[in-house]
Q: What sequence folds into this?
């Protein structure tokens, strides 16, 4: 069973002071499985029955209150194994009728996490005591859900409507101190005082020295109805603007509002009904899939199951202080790794250090970092112009321009100057690692560490292994990845690896459509409305045509048969239109980087069209929005299938994560393979085949897709005989 190694339980221990301590136990995060919930109800009823119990404290084992409802139980509902609302989802009644309405007071003692259902249990208690570092929140919306154990009603009554909506809509947690300021917890104490302070608080409630509060009926934090309506109106407008494709944030606001207007019991009922609908929605199914897939990336068969312990990486060198190198250095020093930044001359080195400084300064400006922490963090970075200081580094990450012979030279040098255990990583985004390491004898410690720009912000780290890379080196890099808060996906070696192989047809398909008559700006709009952060043309402007063309060349060389050859980008570049940095690309940019459409583009498109020998296709010129989405993304699915079939990715779910975190594919569509399976392999195959007949090999469905389509099989089911590169 995913995410829940045991079914969990609770224990009850009655002290001489007459307080029953109920402990939630379900490693690793004390999630609330059916067994935990049933056991909690039984322990609670026992405490209420026993004459020697005067008051109750609920806490979680091993310094964690609870990570919330057991998410794996949602999967069963989503797979259709469970149809009716299960007792789990009716637990809201138990919290209201048994805990909150009890004749004995209860206090939650919170350390570590109190998330989702965990916080909802705590809010049904009559008071909450937490440690300063505890994290409290209702992150259910991240899963396409709303709180289902009364959180939509109790949180607004404890912290006010606006703050409650903010916490739920952003899924952000607050720490114990902040929770105290908000009124969500009643006192903050150190972890070793937690249980005794909570027991004392419960006795104080009993003896009327502290208030006995049922959160559900608290009113003093609630705004007047008129003010509340304004808050709801504003929240709806914001939610609509930020996530127009998502319905559950609006449902959440509706449910909170219903409770304010019609009373908390009516609110609880609406919460229950809405939760039942949402848990079965495609969006929740997709987001739950993403939740488990993201955690699944750290489990790589044949590598993470070998019992290898990651070696400690104490010092890292980064080669190249450009955009990528400085971003990588920033990510490393932010996680306390001392870093040497090597450049070829002083001017470049100072520029690189300047970029790192600017990255950190922007955190200070946003209030995410103190000036003192800024100084300390920056002091971890040292510039260097030679390899002398590489004598004691444990890992090098090369991030110079995409030039094969330059990289080959660098890796030969690294072999000479770095200690023999040192991990030699390259941040190349496309070049085959075997080529890069060709002139060395260190193939076992050469690995790809492909970051995404800006490297200190983007969450994905594509770890590329060749057939020679040792499992130890992979485990070491995965560990560094985790420490710098990246989600690693381990992939095999090939041109473009997983993410860029999927990106390539995305841009290519867009160019093909434009040359055949589809409006360029319409494509960007449709793709943005689909949920991508920006359309393919706006993205090309952001990346810059220089990089786009250089990367494209790698694909032309390696996958010529399925490359759509167009001169659109080179023609524009010839005219000094190189993307955002030149202020002109597919869009025109003003001082504030605001993009404006440019009617002049027509002349480049017409020229590119005539060079390609392509005529406007009236059918494509009238393409529906659905068709635009399919013609752009099915070629991406096709490439993802190849990547999967070749064993470059071991699990389809890794490609889902790669697409979401590397390409910006909307997580609420579950990732590229998950989304593709919602159409079915037969449909995708038939569409690609139809287009390939008219528009050429670019669309030709791959053998894997043909095979899955013939069997009517899902694209994400495991590949049995893949010639795995892992
Ligand atoms: C009715 C209610 O209103 C509905 C709900 O409560 S919905 C649930 C709300 N709770 C959440 O969304 C929290 C989800 N969990 C998290 O954000 C993070 O796991 C965490 C912050 C709790 C811990 O993070 P971290 O320490 O990095 O550990 P992480 O690797 O994520 O999780 C450890 C393991 O616990 C599992 N897990 C975490 N939370 C879980 C949950 N709520 N249910 C089931 N499994 C869970 C993970 O799948 C993972 O399993 P694995 O080891 O087999 O891969």
A:
């Amino acid at each position: 069973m995913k995410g829940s190694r045991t079914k969990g339980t609770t224990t009850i221990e009655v002290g001489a002071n007459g307080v029953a301590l109920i402990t939630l136990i379900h490693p690793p995060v004390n999630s609330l499985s059916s067994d935990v919930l049933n056991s909690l109800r039984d322990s609670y009823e026992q405490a209420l029955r026993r004459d020697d119990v005067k008051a109750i404290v609920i806490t979680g084992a091993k310094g964690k209150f609870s990570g919330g409802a057991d998410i794996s139980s949602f999967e069963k509902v989503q797979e259709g194994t469970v149809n009716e609302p299960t007792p789990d989802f009716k637990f809201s009644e138990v919290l209201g009728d048994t805990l909150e309405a009890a004749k004995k007071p209860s206090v939650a003692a919170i350390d570590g996490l109190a998330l989702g259902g965990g916080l909802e249990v705590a809010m049904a208690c009559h008071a909450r005591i937490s440690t300063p570092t505890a994290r409290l929140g209702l992150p259910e919306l991240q899963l396409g859900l709303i709180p289902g154990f009364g959180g939509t009603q109790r949180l607004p009554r404890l912290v006010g409507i606006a703050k409650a909506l903010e916490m739920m809509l952003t899924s952000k947690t607050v720490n114990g101190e902040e929770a105290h300021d908000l009124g969500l917890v009643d006192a903050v104490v150190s972890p070793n005082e937690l249980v005794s302070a909570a027991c004392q608080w419960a006795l104080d409630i009993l003896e009327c020295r502290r208030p006995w509060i049922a959160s559900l009926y608290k009113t003093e934090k609630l705004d007047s109805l008129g003010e509340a309506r304004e808050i709801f109106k504003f929240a709806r407008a914001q939610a609509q603007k930020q996530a127009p494709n998502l319905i559950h944030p609006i449902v959440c606001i509706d449910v909170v509002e219903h409770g304010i207007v019609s009373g908390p019991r009516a609110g609880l009922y609406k919460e229950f009904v809405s939760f039942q609908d949402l848990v079965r929605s495609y969006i929740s199914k997709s987001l739950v899939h993403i939740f488990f897939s993201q955690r699944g990336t750290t489990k790589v068969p044949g590598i993470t199951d070998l019992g290898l312990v990651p070696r400690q990486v104490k010092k890292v060198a980064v080669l190249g202080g450009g955009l990528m190198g400085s971003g990588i250095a920033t990510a490393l020093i932010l996680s306390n790794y001392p870093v040497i930044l090597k450049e070829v001359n002083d001017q470049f080195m100072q520029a690189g250090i300047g970029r790192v400084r600017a990255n950190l300064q922007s955190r200070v400006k946003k209030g995410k970092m103190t000036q003192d922490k800024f100084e300390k963090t920056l002091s971890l970075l040292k510039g260097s112009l030679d390899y002398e200081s590489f004598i004691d580094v444990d890992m090098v990450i090369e991030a110079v321009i995409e030039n094969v012979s330059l990289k080959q030279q660098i890796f030969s040098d690294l072999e000479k100057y770095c200690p023999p255990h040192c991990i030699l990583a390259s941040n190349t985004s496309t070049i085959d690692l075997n080529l890069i390491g060709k002139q060395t004898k260190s193939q076992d410690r050469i690995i790809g560490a492909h970051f995404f720009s800006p490297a200190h912000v983007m969450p994905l780290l594509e770890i590329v292994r060749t057939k020679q890379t040792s499992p130890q080196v992979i485990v070491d890099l995965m560990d560094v990845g985790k420490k710098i808060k990246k989600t690693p996906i381990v992939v095999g070696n090939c041109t473009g690896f997983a993410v860029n192989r999927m990106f390539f047809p995305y841009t290519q398909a867009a160019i093909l459509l434009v040359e055949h008559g589809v409006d360029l700006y319409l494509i960007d709009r449709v793709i943005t409305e689909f949920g991508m952060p920006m359309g393919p043309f706006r993205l090309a402007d952001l990346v810059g045509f220089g990089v786009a063309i250089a990367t494209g060349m790698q694909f032309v060389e390696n996958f010529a048969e399925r490359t759509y050859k167009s001169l659109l980008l080179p023609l524009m570049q010839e005219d000094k239109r190189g993307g955002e940095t030149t202020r002109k690309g597919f869009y025109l940019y003003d001082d504030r980087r605001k993009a404006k459409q440019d009617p002049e583009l027509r002349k480049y498109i017409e020229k590119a069209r005539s060079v390609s020998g392509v005529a406007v296709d009236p059918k494509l010129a009238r393409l529906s929005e659905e068709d635009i989405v399919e013609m752009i993304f099915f070629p991406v699915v096709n490439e993802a299938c190849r990547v999967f079939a070749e064993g470059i990715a071991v699990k389809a779910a890794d490609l889902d994560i790669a697409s979401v975190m590397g390409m910006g594919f909307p997580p609420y569509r579950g990732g590229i393979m998950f989304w593709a399976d919602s159409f079915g392999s037969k449909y995708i195959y038939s569409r690609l085949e139809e287009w390939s007949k008219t528009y050429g090999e670019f669309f030709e469905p791959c053998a894997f897709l043909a095979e899955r389509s013939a069997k009517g099989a899902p694209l994400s089911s495991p590949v049995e005989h893949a010639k795995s590169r892992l």
